[in-house]
Here is the input.
Amino acid sequence: MSIWWSLHLRRDAASVPLARRLLLGTMETAGVDPDISYDLSVALSEACANAVEHGGDAVRDGTSEAFRVTAYLDGEKCRIEVADAGPGFPGVTGSRPRPPARPAPPDAEHGRGLCLIRELADHVHIGNKPGRGGAVVSFDKILKWREDAPLVAV
Here is the structure.
């Protein structure tokens, strides 16, 4: 069983729950275990919130820039990628593929997203788009299936 979808979303806070609901609906329909679905939806929300917050110029020609979300449920794994058109991660080069994880202070309202994604997913890649600019956050997780899963991987 293989399912994939891709969204091109405005950099607007309302885009975050849209992406999350689509992921949750897809996983529920396929029969993915609800705990796994929840973990991935939280990680997706954090990646989308980062793209909305940091993913490009505020407004160009009266419209906000977009970001892209792609999700693949393939066999026993789900892979999600969020890419934006912003400045990317400072200091990230080919030899250093991800920014350092800096724990946020306990009372901070921002700064926990990438650490949370790393905790919820099995594998995480954080980097910059080559040549064009922008950040890419991709992560995957091994899936567990409900007993009554209609689209369980064979």
